[in-house]
Amino acid sequence: MSNDRVVTGGGIADLEPLAQAREQKAWYWYDWANSAYTTTIGTVFFGPYFISLAENAVGGEDGRFELGGLSLPPDSLFFWLITVSTILSALILPPLGAYADRVANKKRLLATLAWTGAFFASLIFFATGDNWLLAAVGIVFGNLFFGAAGVVNDSILPLISDEDDRDRVSSRGWAFGYLGGGLLLVINLGVYLGHESLGLDEGLAARLCMLSAAAWWAGFTLIPFLKLRNHPPVDVEHVEGNALRRSFGQLAATLRDLRNYPMALTFLVAYLFFNDGIQTVIASASVFGSEELGHSQTILIATILMVQFVAFGGALLFGRLAGRFGAKRSILVGLAIWCVIVTVALFLPAGNVPFFLVLGAAIGIVLGGTQALARSYFSLLIPRGKEAEYFSFYHAMDRGTSWFGTATFGIVLAVTDSYRPAIFALIAFFVIGGLLLTRVDTERGIREAGNDVPAVI
Fold first, then answer.
1. The predicted structure's pLDDT at residue 407
2. What pLDDT score does 118 carry?
3. Phi, psi at residue 90, to the nearest 5°?
4. φ and ψ at 5, to 5 degrees?
5. Burial letters 250-269, b for 16+ CB under 10 A, else e
6. For residue 16, which of 68, 204, 415, 444 sits 20 to 30 Å off, Cα-Cα?
7. Cα(46)–Cα(44) distance, rounded to whole angstroms?
8. Number of Cβ atoms within 10 Å of the Cβ of 301
9. What is the pLDDT of residue 57?
């Protein structure tokens, strides 16, 4: 008898919904695990620490790196590293997605990629003095495997949830991630700000905080690894050859077949615009707060923490909105709020802490919600058996064009010499993304992909 069914009295009770619910709870823990890398390493500690290593290597902030004919200041080297990691991701993720769709044991693949990424992230702890190269290896490959594990994780969502349940599950996972990342960040900021009382120098405190994020990522990945089930591949293209050749063959077949899913493609283009706007706002918020509004580092740190915990509630709120009004309408509401946020930033008075905190709270509300629903909405528009491959396009195209927003921000800043019009210029990304999203016929896209149409779309 199957483990998912049990005889009760005169009939057979289907326990599959209970098994699916257990898988969903296990799946949430990966968002909890990997968000520590994003917040502690990516957002707060790595950039400043790496720049200090680079400055040590060239004798101070006025020194220069001579790399491949380029003369680079030490602080710009960090942004080149991020660029390299995004380009590598854009190239590697699609064939990885094609391979993942042919793997039944996706939880093992997820864990392997996550643990490899955590290993590289942990190398940053050993980068001291002027050893910027070891830190560079840690962040480039940490980012690469972070993105690769994200593709596999997102591809599991359609396997553990029905179409009617997809928005709720995605939103809860995203909310869980913000809660986990925020909790570790609180602990790490306590360690960093109180390093003297703990007998630590500032550099060691920063390295310990980043090491804790790598350990958090690796440790909590054990939960989905142990609790998720294997899901046999379905409807994959028949391609001859070894695993690598079959993966590229699958990728080629999907690229030829993309024209059959125009709604999925339209949404991808819309997502590229509005997600780039979101990422640029987040990346520039701290600089805007310090350089344009004159807020202290303490205020900025408090705002980052507040955004993390408000985003937890925001993701759950948008999950409820999607259950009532549909994911597409809810995302459009979120994009309208993003337009208001960048407009308010244009007029925000300098030095006014309450207004800045209110703006941060507004960002938190829509940050998790729009991203969580984008993930679940896209999952409805892609065919069964190609979840990882389509999510690899979702991640790769995002990373491959992630410089559009920052380039726009930088150009406007250079022309106007002010952060206010620079951040307001990002409204174009939300408007264009929203207009493209209105062109997506949700029901048609779901039917084209061969999925069931939810009760609320």
1. 78
2. 97
3. -60, -30
4. -130, 150
5. bbebbeeeeeebbbbbbbbb
6. 444
7. 6
8. 16
9. 83
Q: What's the token pair of residue 106? A: 């996706």
338, 278 contact by CB (below 8 A): yes
Whether the Cβ atoms of residue 29 and residue 174 lie closer than 8 Å to each other: no
Residue 83 CB: number of other CB atoms within 10 A?
A: 14
Where b means 16+ CB within 10 Å and e means fewer, 311-330 reads bbbbbbbbbebbbeebbbbb
> Which positions ≥6 away from 346 have C-beta within 8 Å?
420, 421, 423, 424
- Which residues of the chain fall short of a pLDDT of 50? 1-11
Radius of gyration over alpha carbons of the chain, in Å? 22
Residue 154 in contact with residue 394, Cβ under 8 Å? yes
- pTM value? 0.84
CATH topology of domain 21-448: Growth Hormone; Chain: A; (1.20.1250)
Q: Tell how far CA 62 is from the center of its chain.
A: 34
Spatial CB neighbours of 206, under 8 Å, sequence gap ≥ 6: 45, 48, 49, 192
Instruction: Tell me what pLDDT residue 238 has.
Output: 54
Q: Measuring CA to CA, which residue among 357, 368, 398, 381 is closest to residue 441? A: 381
